[in-house]
Amino acid sequence: MRPEGLSEIPEWTAAAAATAFPDGSHAMPARDELTDEAFGVRGAPALASPGMLALVTVLQFAEDLTDQQAALMAVRAIDWKYALGMELTDPGFDFTVLAKFRAPTVCALRTAV
Length: 113
Hints:
Layout: H1 11-20, H2 27-30, H3 50-62, H4 67-76, H5 78-84, H6 96-112
């Protein structure tokens, strides 16, 4: 995973999101609540930062989506692209990254119980 924080929101993504969601959405302000520093950096290089994957996981839970559906939302939903700081043309990430991201957390929770 990349050690840098969430990227800045691209200008076109911010403009499109503001037009599409004039009153905002649950995905857009969620970005402000999570940072890479809160989750640390571990694991092998991947396509997304820990903060981005954590935010996707939160949005996925809020919308009751599968990993594959969440990855598709990151490609086609303007409010998700805004929240994740993605360019409008960003192709997203492979859905299997989400399970790999959650695996260390699940293992830690099991040993703590």
